[in-house]
Design brief:
The complex is a heterotrimer of chains A (about 325), B (about 850) and C (about 220).
Chain A: E1 9-12, E2 29-34, H1 43-51, E3 77-85, E4 91-99, H2 107-111, E5 118-121, E6 126-128, H3 138-142, E7 149-150, E8 157-158, H4 164-167, H5 174-178, E9 184-188, H6 189-205, E10 212-214, E11 224-228, H7 248-254, H8 257-279, H9 286-296
Parallel strand pairs in A: 2-11
Antiparallel strand pairs in A: 1-5, 2-9, 3-4, 5-6, 7-8, 10-11
Chain B: E1 13-17, H1 21-24, H2 30-38, E2 42-46, E3 59-61, H3 68-81, H4 87-93, E4 106-107, E5 110-111, E6 114-115, E7 120-121, H5 148-156, H6 161-168, H7 172-183, E8 192-196, H8 198-201, H9 206-220, E9 230-232, H10 239-244, E10 251-252, E11 256-257, H11 266-271, H12 289-301, H13 326-334, E12 340-344, H14 348-351, H15 355-363, E13 367-372, E14 399-404, E15 413-416, E16 421-425, H16 438-456, H17 462-465, H18 479-487, E17 489-490, E18 494-495, E19 501-503, E20 521-522, E21 532-533, E22 536-537, E23 558-559, E24 587-589, E25 594-596, H19 665-669, E26 679-684, H20 698-703, E27 708-712, H21 713-719, E28 726-731, E29 734-743, E30 749-751, E31 754-756, E32 758-762, E33 797-803
Parallel strand pairs in B: 1-2, 1-8, 2-3, 8-9, 12-13, 13-14, 26-32, 27-29
Antiparallel strand pairs in B: 4-5, 6-7, 10-11, 15-16, 16-23, 17-20, 18-19, 21-22, 24-25, 26-33, 28-29, 28-33, 30-31
Helix pairs in contact in B: 3-6, 3-7, 3-9, 13-15
Chain C: E1 8-9, H1 13-37, H2 51-76, H3 84-91, H4 93-97, H5 112-134, H6 137-140, H7 146-176, H8 180-185, E2 188-189, H9 191-197, H10 199-208
Antiparallel strand pairs in C: 1-2
Helix pairs in contact in C: 1-2, 2-5, 5-7, 9-10
Classes of the chains: A alpha+beta (about 325), B alpha/beta (about 850), C mainly alpha (about 220).
InterPro entries (chain C): Cyt_b561_bac/Ni-Hgenase, Di-haem_cyt_TM, FDH_cytochrome_b556_subunit, Formate_DH_gsu
Family (chain C): Belongs to the formate dehydrogenase gamma subunit family.
Cofactor (chain C): heme
Chain lengths: ~325, ~850, ~220
């Protein structure tokens, strides 16, 4: 997306300076996906393609209703279908709209080395600013939800923007606008949590004792939340992580290693400088040459360096 | 729909059976979700497959395709046995108390009067016993053995839970759980809504499927009430409009019928149409048939329709058979009896059964005109597209004319939705290329025909030469002009009883009540009268306000008839005119008239005490548990197996399938047996596609790119079929090679003790468009239709399935190939 | 290639070219790698035209470096085998640091410090190569799991830092020990340089009559 809302950044990738946040009255937003109301019609998927002008490759049928078979640079949201049979043999078809979760603590942003390629707005939306993206794929490694995809065409990373362009002008995301059953709602995060509470109460009444809200604290909460009938087992929903977190490896890489390495390099550089000042150069002296000449002129020597001024290796 | 989409939210139970509302009607399905959330409704889904509708259901039960009548008859038995019917409603508003003629009977699968040779019934015994005044006799105590309710009890007594389970394969516990949920809506303040679609119509017993459910609804007192009704979800934005304006071979606009050969005079024709009341004091709306008909003739022929020529009755075509439905049309084509075909907005190569026969039949035509916005399979039937359309162009002499037309977004006009709303829409874009509006094309054909008739005479030029054609631009009538004409207008000043002028000559009618049978009014479609009045285009109204969230929104667009949103809404109130459900009244009697958010489907000032029945289109004013002679295969629904079925009819082995359904001899030969084709096939739509259109749209093609069939894990294991692997699916009529989707959502059903596997065949792929090429599920389907409507039996037939490898790839990018296998362009197609 | 009269050949032309290909790759890899490692270095991406160009070219430089380094390895590995002299030399590192080489035991062609650099690089570069391949998004992004890539990117970063630290030592040593730079740029050293820093190597040359670079043991004087 274009960098139209830079005054609303609260986080900016690979940037140590405090981002601007002139506007202080941004409400945190959230998209609430109520999977218990979702009928898997893929209207959201086509609305996403329409609004963002995406036309991913037409694939083959590969034994599932998921089409395309996975998220890709042209598929920012994807309906995933899981056929689940519980211990009693009751079948459930758990359909989940997959896409960026817009983490409060975004792993992609943490991992991104390109300043301003990934930003987080004050409203919580995590956005990829494509013109700054260098295509390294670090966001892929940083993401706990396996969302970003690198385009093989332009080598930039793409994912759901939560329609930051629409939200920025007071519209709801395209998928929300199009969802026929109201399974996708959009508003302030607080309102969405309240609404989710009502939905969960209703689901519990219908016998889904483990109904709950998916707003994983491990990533500081997300700005895309799910109402799940089986909130105790999110992984039933086509592998939604039970406890999503930024990988410890990424934490190490982007955490302690960065300052440590910087310190190490600085130390090495300074040490050499200090050594240079303290010890000075190690120069070959005339005495060394003399000593060498002495040894070379010994009777046993027949060859002495480059005798004709020419040497061949 | 008897009710509206929004009204679904008022339901306590939503039954989706004979349809797949979430997938086929995702937008309207929001109201089901609304009912669940706001009205704590239970969603019950009965379907051979665990569909996307089932994924949000409270209760799901599987059923073998084609056994819905057994299921629903069992439900009726359950309701009657457990006294879970709404007594006052059933007694007053249905024909439960009426006494059936002596001599009526049912034995071994046949009602009285069957003629095996003609495969039809003499229906004279299927009627009421009449008293001296010609009124039906009744017994309000329900003691008479031949009163309808007792005959019904007797008829459904055989459908015990065990038998239902044996026939349908539905587990008994699930079935009984569903019966119980049904029964909960017998309470006067509870309603069940029935949402159905082609899952009920596309059977050889399609009309009876729906009747069975309508009877359940009558027993439960769920017709006419908020959140109830029989709601046919139409599969096309304007298919309701198609039937409304009579685009059927046996219909005139407004559900009037085309005369038969035997209707030699207008009076003879009207004799059977103007129904006399069968109960004292009853309103029978069809008594006005003559007014509708004469006004229609005035719209058709203008001044040329006069009293002297019986309103030009003789110029109407007369049917020599029941109807020229599509099956008959193609049978005649195949037999060389039909040589030309104008195919407007229809794609028979995909939409009609037994594609091989369709291709063969089209190949025998002299000419085929295809009027369509898309490059359809029908227009390309003669081209060799490889295995998906193995035609031999050199052997086909049919001349094909392709006339590209505008699509819905490229023209203005009205669409009639499932809820009978006429919604005006406006043009959004110009048509591409040479596409022209259908009206322009039809006008062009008309003018050429007319000038040919004028010049050359011909056998019967009058019907064409006298046609009324008063449009501003005769070459291109505008949708608005047609809409005004369908509404109708006064031809002279119309006065009321006091002599005051109600309408001046030339003014638009306010409604069909103003229609006259003396030639002073005209109306192209009487049920649309009121849609474009002197106040303007009512269809263009866009006031979404819905008082008290009743789901009525009376000022949004316009609903036929008379802007009435819930049909039979008089039945929403009890005998005293008070709402059965005080929380959700539709109309109520306030002491002097009927009031409410909806327009009363009743005399607005007819007192409740007058005992006029709420079903005013019926002669007895009551909902019919006993259909009299209106259905060809019987006044009660009976379970008949699909024409291709793996099971015996355990009720009456000798009468296995619908005894009154028409089967052409060659088609019967093309029916398979369970020995060769042991699995039950059923066809359906997927939410990602709209019929055969959206395979031309890239986004839809991306969302479901390729033809596949769905099979259960057990069958896949048995046949060694892998997930996503290639399979050959075959019926006696043809084969489809496509991918397999192995799913837990289809399980083998225990039918009469035998596991029965179902193979699901989505229908959307063909050989034109941007999606991957497919054979089309209609390659497999049998050429037999519902006995009443001849809607093809797409939902239940026999298949075999084998693992195979991919069909030979054809470079589709190069388009069709000629006889030598050389790709060729489409430019050889003729144009007018 | 001509060398001044009376000098010793420290590095042949091929060796020097090989070294500098490796070296330039290493420098560019360091610049681009650091740019992708820490935001304070991101400005270095401008040296490559843009971040995208930098991201694109980095792995190719890495492949080049790997191939080039194999050349160096083949040429140098034998002379970098550790021996007793190195241990003795290493024990006198403080003297080395103080430029007091009179009190440092003599060593062959490479001293212990150089050998540490050599073996350090010989160990780290293949690791960087392999882990770099795993995180080479364009070609191998889909080849391994994201978890594998996370491990790879962490190892790659740590390895790179290690390599850069070694490189800093290496470069400083070349600046510090005068004459070393010339040895790698132009190939020759003065006998005094050799006598001062690599006396055993020097004596080996004297003994074999070669102008250099000879294997420590058996090389024969060659006509030239």
């Amino acid at each position: 997306m274009a960098d139209l809302q830079s005054q609303d950044y609260i986080r900016r990738s690979a940037t140590n300076l405090t981002p601007p946040s002139v506007r202080h009255h941004e409400l945190e937003v959230a998209k609430l996906i109520d999977v218990s109301r979702c009928i898997g019609c893929k209207a959201c998927q086509s609305a996403c393609m329409e609004w963002n002008n995406l036309r991913p490759e037409m694939e083959e049928f590969h034994g599932a209703y998921e089409n395309p078979h996975d998220l890709n640079p042209g598929t920012w949201t994807l309906m995933r279908f899981a056929e689940y049979e519980d211990e009693q043999g009751n079948l459930e078809w758990l359909i989940r709209k997959d896409g960026c979760m817009h983490c409060e603590d975004p792993g992609c942003l943490k991992a991104c080395p390109a300043p301003g390629a990934i930003v987080q707005y004050a409203n919580g939306i995590v956005d990829f600013i494509s013109e700054n993206c260098i295509g390294c794929g670090y966001c892929v490694k940083g993401c706990p939800f396996n969302i970003p995809r690198i385009s093989a065409q332009d080598h930039k990373s793409y994912k759901c923007t939560l329609c930051s362009d629409r939200v920025g002008v007071g519209l709801e995301p395209a998928c929300v606008k199009t969802c026929p059953t109201g399974a996708i709602m959009f508003g302030s995060k607080d309102d969405m949590k309240d609404w989710a509470g009502e939905r969960i109460a209703e689901l519990k009444e219908r016998g889904f004792q483990n109904a709950g809200l998916y707003d994983p604290p491990e990533v500081g909460g997300t700005h895309v939340m799910y109402v799940l009938h089986h909130a105790d087992k999110p992984s039933l929903y086509s592998g939604l992580p039970d406890k999503p977190h930024i990988s410890a490896l990424v934490g190490a890489w982007k955490g302690f290693l960065k300052p440590l390495a910087l310190a190490g390099l600085a130390f090495a550089a300074v040490s050499t400088f200090v050594h240079s000042i303290v010890s000075g150069p190690n120069e070959t002296t005339e005495e060394d040459e003399e000593a060498a000449r002495r040894e070379m002129s010994g009777p046993e020597m027949s060859g002495r360096g480059n005798s004709e001024g020419k040497g061949k290796s | 729909m008897t009710n509206t989409w929004q009204d679904i939210k008022n339901a306590n139970v939503v039954l989706v059976m004979g349809g797949n509302a979430a997938e086929a009607h995702p937008c309207g399905f929001k109201w089901v979700i609304e009912a669940k959330i706001e009205n704590k409704a239970k969603l019950v889904v009965v379907d051979p497959r665990f569909t996307r509708t089932a994924s949000v259901a409270d209760v799901y039960a599987p059923i073998r395709p084609g056994t819905d009548i057994a299921f629903l008859s069992g439900v009726m038995r359950y309701l009657l046995e457990n006294d879970a019917i709404q007594h006052a409603y059933v007694k007053a508003y249905t024909n439960a108390s009426l006494i059936v003629k002596e001599g009526f009977g049912f034995e071994d699968g046949l009602f009285t009067g069957y003629n095996e040779e003609k495969r039809s019934y003499d229906k004279s015994s299927w009627d009421y016993e009449l008293d001296e005044q010609g009124y039906a006799k009744s017994d309000d105590t329900w003691q008479h053995p031949r009163c309808v309710i007792n005959l019904l009890k007797q008829h459904v007594a055989r459908y015990t839970p065990e038998l239902v389970s044996r026939i349908c394969g539905t587990p008994q516990d699930k079935y009984l759980e569903i019966c119980k949920i049904f029964a909960s809506t017998a309470a006067p303040d509870k309603a069940l809504t029935s949402l159905f679609a082609l899952g009920w119509t596309q059977h050889s017993v399609g009309a009876q499927n729906i009747r069975a459910m309508a009877m359940v609804q009558l027993l439960l007192g769920n017709i006419g009430v908020a959140g109830g009704g029989m709601n046919a979800l139409r599969g096309h934005s304007n298919i309701q409009g198609l039937t409304d304006v009579g685009l059927m071979s046996n219909l005139l606009p407004g559900y009037m019928t085309i005369p038969k050969d035997s209707d030699v005079t207008l009076d003879k024709y009207l004799e059977t149409k103007q129904f006399k009341p069968l109960r004292p004091g009853q309103t029978s709306y069809w008594q006005n048939y003559r007014k509708f008909f004469v006004s229609f003739q005035k719209a058709l022929y203008g001044d040329a329709a006069k009293a002297e020529n019986n309103w030009a009755y003789d110029w109407l075509p007369k049917l020599d058979v029941d109807g020229y439905d599509v099956l008959r049309a193609f049978e005649r084509m195949d037999n060389g009896q039909m040589n030309g075909y104008i195919c407007q907005g229809f794609n028979p190569m995909q939409a009609f059964p037994d594609r091989g026969k369709i291709r063969r039949s089209l190949s025998k035509l002299k000419y085929l005109v295809v009027i369509d916005p898309l490059d359809t399979e029908t227009a390309n039937f003669w081209q060799d597209y490889g295995p998906q359309n193995p035609s031999k162009p050199a052997e086909i002499q049919t001349e094909v004319f392709q006339l590209p037309t505008t699509c819905f977004a490229e023209e203005e006009g009205s669409l009639v939705n499932s809820a009978r709303w006429l919604q005006w829409h406006w043009k959004a874009a110009d048509a591409p290329g040479e596409a022209k509006p259908d009206l322009w094309i039809m006008a062009g054909l008309y003018h050429r025909l007319k000038s040919m008739y004028a010049k050359d005479g011909g056998a019967f030029p009058a019907p064409i030469l006298n046609l009324s054609w008063s449009y501003a631009d005769p070459a291109e009538p505008q949708p608005a002009e047609l809409a005004r004409e369908m509404n109708g207008r006064a031809l002279v000043d119309i006065k009321d009883d006091t002599g005051a002028v109600v309408l001046k000559a030339g003014q638009q009618l306010d409604g069909f009540a103003q229609l006259r049978d003396d030639g002073t009014t005209m109306s192209g479609c009487w049920i649309f009268a009121g849609s474009w009045t002197e106040k303007g285009n009512q269809m263009a109204r866009r006031d979404a306000s819905d008082p008290r969230d009743a789901g009525i929104a009376p000022n949004w667009a316009w609903a036929w008839p008379a802007n009435r949103r819930i049909l039979y809404n008089r039945a929403s109130a009890d005998l005293d005119g008070k709402a059965w459900n005080p929380h959700k009244p539709v109309i109520q009697w306030n002491g002097s008239k009927w009031v409410g958010f909806d327009v009363p489907d009743y005399g607005p000032t007819v007192k409740p005490q007058d005992g006029v029945g709420p079903f005013i289109m019926n002669q007895e004013g009551q909902g019919r548990l006993f259909a009299r002679g209106l259905m060809v295969e019987g006044p009660f629904p009976e379970h008949y197996e699909p024409f291709e079925s793996p099971a015996e009819n355990v009720l009456h082995p000798k009468v296995k399938s619908n005894p009154a359904a028409r089967v052409f001899p060659n088609d019967r030969k093309a029916m398979g047996t369970a020995q060769d084709f042991p699995y039950v096939g059923t066809t359906y739509r997927l939410t990602e596609h709209f019929h055969y259109w959206t395979k031309h749209a890239l986004i839809n093609a991306i969302l479901q790119p390729e033809e596949f069939v769905e099979i259960g894990e057990a069958l896949a294991k048995e046949k060694g079929i892998e997930q996503g692997g290639w399979v050959k699916v075959s019926s006696k009529r043809g084969q489809v090679i496509c991918k397999a989707f192995v799913t837990k959502r289809i399980k083998p059903l225990m039918v009469d003790g035998k596991p029965t596997h179902v193979i699901g065949c989505p229908i959307h792929w063909g050989f034109t468009g941007v999606a991957r090429k497919g054979y089309g599920a209609n390659t497999l389907t049998p050429f037999v239709g519902d006995a009443n409507t001849n809607t093809p039996e797409f939902k239940a037939f026999l298949l075999n399935i084998e693992k195979t490898s991919a069909p030979p790839a054809v470079d589709v990018a190069q388009g069709p190939r000629d006889a030598q296998g050389v790709p060729k362009s489409l430019t050889k197609v003729g144009s007018l | 290639m001509s060398y001044p009269k009376g000098t010793l050949v420290r590095n042949s032309t091929a060796t020097r070219l090989n070294h500098w290909i490796t070296g330039i790759c290493f420098v560019l890899l360091t610049l681009s790698g650091l740019a992708m490692f820490h935001p304070v270095f991101f400005w270095l991406s401008n040296l490559f035209g843009s971040g995208q160009w930098m991201r694109a070219v980095h792995p190719w430089l890495g492949v080049t470096l790997m191939v080039s380094f194999i050349g160096l390895f083949v040429q140098f590995w034998r002379d970098n085998l550790w021996n007793r002299d190195d241990t003795a030399w290493a024990k006198k590192l403080d003297r080395v640091m103080a430029n007091d080489e009179e009190h440092v035991p003599p060593v062959g062609r490479f001293n212990a410090g150089q050998k540490v650099v050599f073996w350090g690089m010989a160990l780290i570069i293949p690791v960087l190569f392999v882990t770099g391949i795993l995180i080479w998004e364009v070609y191998f992004g889909a080849a391994t799991s994201i978890e594998t890539q996370r491990v790879a990117v962490l190892i790659h970063s740590m390895g790179a830092i290690g390599a850069i630290l070694i490189w800093i030592t290496h470069v400083y040593a070349a600046i510090w020990v005068k004459g070393s730079m010339r040895a790698m740029l132009h190939g020759w050293v003065t006998p005094g340089w050799a006598h001062r820093h690599h006396r055993k190597w020097f004596r080996g040359l004297v003994a074999s009559g070669s102008p250099g670079p000879t294997p420590t043991s058996t090389a024969k004087f060659r006509e030239h």
